[in-house]
Amino acid sequence: MGKIETKKTIMTIIDGKEVAAALRKQIADEVAEMVRAGKRAPHLVAILVGTDGASQTYVGHKEKCCGECGFRSTVLRLPEETSEEELLAHIDRLNADEEVDGFIVQLPLPRHISEQKVIEAIDPRKDVDGFHPINVGRMNSGLPAFVSATPDGILSLLRYYGIETAGRHCVVIGRSNIVGRPVANLLSQKGWDCTVTLCHSRTRDLKQVAASADILIAALGKAEFVTADMVKPGAVVIDVGITRLPSDKTKSGWRLVGDVKYDEVAPKCSFITPVPGGVGPMTIISLMQNTLKAARHEIYPR
Ligand code: NAD
After folding, report:
1. Hey, which of 58, 105, 230, 259 would disulfide with 241, CB 3.0 to 4.6 Å?
2. Active-site residue 106, yes or no?
3. Ligand 1 within 6 A of 42 CB?
């Protein structure tokens, strides 16, 4: 947890890797306990359709993390030309399989398959990505639900660092169903008690709105969009964005950049997440936590 003293304020760089490692250990300890007690390890299945490079990488990371948590993991690799009907048949089979606690269908899907149909075909009790409308609706109503991984990861970071949220103004930039909208909803709920403003591409005076935030969450997917003049001194800044930019300084030929112009914003903040190493590592951990909850029937008791 790096604390850097600047002229105006003491700024803490939120270390997503450290938090993820601590939570991963907690999960692994709980799984070891389950197995010692004679129960089987949680089992997560990922369905991957086609050969999209980024999706293969994400699924690879999820497999690795399952191993570290002591989970059983299975990846179902299907060819690009898999029909919607075939994919739905796989989902039906996984819904019925008692050896499978949770499963995800890696998005995006090939264009001939309806993502919405696929999401709605997953049994909400196994929907560890938290994308099914039943889980979204339950989450919105403050009921127990599988919450999608990135918003849940953001909340874990706030909790881990003991960041005060009650009564504070939180501005979220980006209203997607997987990040902006759910995190805005959750932070406005009892227990978090933020006053939330949800901004999007049609928001007027975005700079001024952002500059009024005690907690600013940037989730719009535009590299280095948030500049220092959009940030109140002492604000907490959570940068969700990930954009790959070409770079001649790295071996891979690209570098990852967030939605926040880090170098100029960081000195103004009380807390900030770097990219990479901030929100990113938390997303997979939240998926693991959801899978453990599914294995224990915590959200939907039997
Ligand atoms: P999205 O494209 O679905 O949604 C972007 C949102 O930003 C939209 O609601 C849009 O209205 C808003 N927006 C776009 N331009 C804007 C502007 N100029 N001003 C204000 N609002 C604007 O994106 P997403 O899936 O929510 O992802 C957002 C970013 O977060 C992407 O960079 C993505 O790669 C990243 N992401 C990171 C993680 C992680 O684990 N760290 C997880 C999911 C997404």
Report:
1. 259
2. yes
3. no
Q: Of the residues 129, 152, 239, 259, which is catalytic?
A: 129
Verify whether ligand 1 is closer than 6 Å to residue 148 (CB atom): no
Instruction: Enumerate domains of the chain plus CATH numbers.
Output: 37-123 (3.40.50.10860), 148-280 (3.40.50.720)
Which atom of ligand 1 has the smallest separation from the CA of 179? Answer: 26
Task: Map tokens 């790295």 to a residue.
Answer: 250
* Tens of pLDDT, residues 173-224: 999 999 999 999 999 999 999 999 999 999 999 999 999 999 999 999 999 9
Residues 6+ apart with CB under 8 A from 250: none
**Could you report how far apart the first and last alpha carbons of the chain are, in Å?**
40
CA distances from 263 to 8, 57, 162, 242, 266 (A): 15, 28, 24, 16, 6
- Whether the pTM exceeds 0.85: the reply is yes
